[in-house]
Amino acid sequence: MARRILIAVIGLALAAGIYLMFRSSEEPTAPQSAAGSAQPPPEVGIVVAQPAEVPYPQEFAGRVAGFRDVEVRPLVGGLLLKREYDEGARVTQGQVLFRIDPATYQVALDRAQAQLQQAQATLRQAEENFTRTEELYRRGVSTDVLRDEARSQRDQARASVSLAEAEIDAAKLNLGYTTVTAPATGVTALQSPAVGTLIQAQQTLLTTISQLDPAYVNFSFTDEQGQAFRALNERREKPIAEKDLTLELFYGQQAAYPQRGRIDTAAQRVDPQTGTVQARAIFPNPDGVLLPGQFVRVRILGITLPNAIVIPRQAVSQGPQGPSVYVLSEKDVAEIRLIRLGPEVAAGWVVREGLSRGERVVVDGVIRVRPGQPVRPVPFSAGSKPAQASQTPG
Hints:
- The protein is α+β, with helices and mostly antiparallel strands.
- Helices cover 29% and strands 33% of the residues.
- It starts with a helix and ends in a 15-residue tail after the last strand.
- Residues 307-366 form the Multidrug resistance protein MdtA-like C-terminal permuted SH3 domain.
């Protein structure tokens, strides 16, 4: 009996539970507020596309070359007595480098001076003889022949004096050439003839001086880059001239050279093996920091892109169809726009096609944007430092 009562109680409890469950499911839920059901549009940072004059520096690899290499050769021969500098040292123009034995040239100078004295004595005698003959001729005592002979002797004596004076000048020059000085300022070669060597005039190479100030920097650019620059110049109202360009130089661990340079010249031919055009820049080098053969990087400043639209890098997304950006309509609805990129500059990407003046481009919060959905735009402010400019094909 008790067991039946227990089973009945359990059955009633289950029935009551099932009734309450169905009752609660049939009751309508309280309506939610409109503010709780609708999600607010995401906030995004935007920039407005505006064409502007954009700096477009170009960077190339280059090597330093000496401004010129000067060979030092003697103008007179003889025995090398002394070297007045350290091999490989830096010398200045006019500094004494070598001394050649001057003994034979001193003797030649003494002989020339003695010949001058002899010629001067002969000239004095010839002039006195001509003076007497001229006086006798006026008195009618001497003849025309005697007067002409006296005049001829005087003129020959004068010529002999002039010749002796020229011989003295030549002897002094040769004597001075025994002291060899530096024809330019620069760094000398590491090898030179040993002291005691017999030097031959204009043949023996004493040393080579590499002039370092200013310094040349050789670099090359491709034919395509040259054509692109010419096409860019044709689109400009005022073409860019060489005088408008300045050059920066970087060497070592990204260190910048303090002096600015300029373009010196460029070859008028394309290398058939490399397809490049050789160019040369010139930089002041008063302290000799730039050394021949040194590897450097040259950055050309002064080139600009006219009427270029630049957008930050983070605004661009890459997809199967190419690069794209989100552009906002008048009602702040985002839509995808395929674009064609140009070169990369310091502020971001140059857009060649796909954007127009005044269009708003999403830069910050791109991952929160969905095509066809509204957003809440706010002005974008770049917080990161722009990267260096580089060349990227569009």
